[in-house]
Amino acid sequence: VSEAIRVLDVLRRLDRLAPPDLAESWDRVGLQVGRPDQAVARVIVALEVTDDVLAELGVQQDTLLVTHHPLLFRPLDAVRTDRPEGRQVAAVLAAGAALVACHTNWDKAPGGTDDALAEALGIIAPRPLEGASRPAFGVWTMVPEDDLDTVREAMAEAGAGASARYRRASFSVGGESTFEALAGAQPAHGAVGAFTLRHERRLEMVVDGERLAGVLRALLAAHPYEEPAYGVVALHGGWPFGGLGRVGDWPADEPVAAAAERVREALGAQAVRVVGDARRTVRRAASVGGSGRSLLARAAAAGADLVVTADIGHHDARLAEALGLAVVDAGHRETEAPGVHALAGRLRAALKDADVPVPVDQLAVASPFAFAAARPSQGR
Ligand SMILES: [Zn+2]
User: Fold this and answer.
1) pLDDT tens digits for 251-270?
2) What is the 3-state secondary structure (H, E, C) of 170-233?
3) How many whole angstroms from 327 Cα to the centroid of ligand 1?
4) Rounded to whole angstroms, how far apart are CA atoms 162 and 287?
5) Most exposed residue of 23, 83, 184, 212, measured as fewest CB within 10 angstroms of its CB?
6) What's the gap in Å between 336 CA and the centre of ligand 1?
7) Stated pTM of the model
8) CA–centroid distance, residue 155 to ligand 1 (Å)
9) CA 192 – ligand 1 centroid, Å
10) Alpha-carbon distance values, 214 to 22, 172, 205, 207, 211 (Å)
């Protein structure tokens, strides 16, 4: 009998896609409403909790709602259902649903919000504006020559020596090992009480922090020795893993005005706001999903002519001017929609091998903004 998928099972898969330790320190990510052991019959992915999204929760039992923006951001001092947050939390509970937030950890993750936005805009060879990293370790062990392949394969199978583009990466070097087995020991080689010298290999592999425990288990299980020698060293600075914002070459050398129209078209925005000289040529551009104001200086330093982002205020616009940057503010929802779409797609793929099929639906959230007919600025 196949077990139903639980919230915890989905969380585990989500954590692979968007490791929680990538989230900013001020952020709130993970399970926000519900229980880890709750059954999940359907997953809904949406930008945020709105009343339209909540209405969809009651349609099917055991729904897990995954939103980009956390519903609970500031600590609640009361769950009062006459106030918006309390009412929305109560609505999730009343629908028997659970809620998970996947926010700045998804912004930074490879394939996340900022990669999805850069891809939607056609930015060429995008690199993180502000790189992120994850804990990584070097694992070494001494292995008899004949067992090297077995141990290396077992560790690789558990995820050692793997990155986004490589797997089974390892290094080994030969040397001499010694030991003396004491009474009660059952050495794979050599006799109890004898000083034994053997030719062995020192095998080294790099391991993602998340997979370290599994790799060590695999090493110990595959190693022929009763008490294998092994060690773990932390990699200083960790392993590069996505980051905030992206910067790369703009798909065509074109004036800011044409680039703005390209952005509007690519993101399906009703209108965009533009800061800077409309005739200036854009060759290199940065993009940041959602509010990218904190990365303006970094974008300028990275040689960007243009920043595509959202939530640009008056003073941010003045700062951009002073930095010699053009900015296209395409809207918060618009710049994050590609990332929400990508999250639904990744989650769908990650849940494919689940014992019980779990449909993943994406709910479009309408922009809170509408545009009244614009007319040329009077300069007043
Ligand atoms: Zn956002």
Assistant:
1) 999 999 999 999 999 999 99
2) CEEEEEEEEEECCCCCCCCCCCCCCEEEEEEEEEEEEEEHHHHHHHHHHHHHHCCCCCCCEEEE
3) 18
4) 29
5) 184
6) 6
7) 0.85
8) 38
9) 65
10) 21, 21, 13, 10, 5
